[in-house]
Amino acid sequence: MKRIFFEAAAFSLLAAISALTSAQAASPAPQENFPSKPTNTAQVYPAKPVRLIVPFSPGGISDIIARLTAERLERELNGRVLVEHRPGAACNVGADSVAKSAPDGYTLILLNVGCVTINPWIYKNYPFDPLNDLVPIAPIVETSHLLFVPADFPVKSVSELIAYAKQAPGKLNYASGGAGTPLHMSAVYFSRVAGVEMFHVPYKDVTHIATDLATGRIQVAFWVLAPMRSQVSAGRVKALAVARKTRLAALPDVPTFDELGIPGFKPGSWVGIMGPRGIPGALITILNRHVGTMLDDPEVRKRFDDMGVGPLKESPAEFSVRVRSDYEGWRDVVRAAGLKPE
């Protein structure tokens, strides 16, 4: 473990976050055109099992979303969709393997925002070009992070947590999936806007975070609700705030950061499907349409709501704009915070 000291001024990071939000809103329409006319390949697809690579350990939110998506795609495609975990190097191992795979539509990957828009600015000699070697197919959900602490930790609110952290600089441990992951970026942003210093504890296997938080081994974690839900229900972990415009239906008593006087706190993530460059446009269209059908299902939407995530339905072109905008915007955030791999 290694202490992270952020040299950049707080306003620099805030300006970068603001620029990211503005860039997303102002992004121009994409130039890519995806053919929709079926080809012979599309007409027989899938002729063999489709592999959906998950570059994270089993048990996390990405795993849950991947299995639900695979189940629904099997139903829509009338073919096998196999979830295959390939974790390592903050998702870089799995993502690189898919970027270099055959572009035939049989190897896809479920990624989050960190894999293709944050990691490239943190890791030197990145093994692939996220904007050119991977093709956005369909986003699935947007995630909103909550600020979690152990239930017996002696704070009852965000303001009390900030006061506690200021009295003991660097004494609070916070967990993440590694440098540049969405969990890490939320903690980075919070540290800067709150003016506190915390000790970063990167986890190779994020499934241990919930247990370590419940037992007090770590004191702070920014994460989505799903992997923390059992600990919250058991009264071992409590949520102090959520980073979204409105409160979560699943935790109606947990205030938003806006309500607490910390406006603009929107770090979170998206999760979506991509494939290797060169995948036929007709297959992209088919896969995007089937994901959209899944997202329109009230049962699926209810399951996502229970997880604390929201469905994100976009065309491949719209998803491409999102990826490019986030890629450019997070560059400034990473530089302002002085982040480096750990």
Briefly summarize what is shown.
The protein has about 350 residues and is α/β, with parallel strands linked by helices. The chain has helices at about 10-25, 40-45, 60-75, 90-100, 115, 120, 160-165, 180-195, 210-215, 230-235, 280-295, 300-305, 315-335; strands at about 50-55, 80-85, 105-110, 135-145, 145-150, 175, 200, 220-225, 235-240, 270-275, 310.
How do the helices and strands line up, and which of them pair or pack?
Blueprint: H1 10-26, H2 40-44, E1 50-54, H3 61-77, E2 81-85, H4 92-99, E3 107-112, H5 113-117, H6 119-122, E4 134-144, E5 146-150, H7 158-167, E6 173-176, H8 182-194, E7 199-202, H9 209-215, E8 220-223, H10 229-233, E9 237-242, E10 268-276, H11 281-296, H12 298-307, E11 309-311, H13 316-337
Parallel strand pairs: 1-2, 1-3, 6-7, 6-8
Antiparallel strand pairs: 3-10, 4-10, 4-11, 5-8, 5-9
Give the oligomer, counting copies of the same chain as homo and different chains as hetero: single chain
Please give the order of strands in the largest beta sheet: 2-1-3-10-4-11
CATH superfamily heading of the largest domain: Bordetella uptake gene, domain 1
CATH class of the largest domain: Alpha Beta
Estimate nothing, just give the exact number of structural domains.
2
- Cα radius of gyration in angstroms: 20 Å
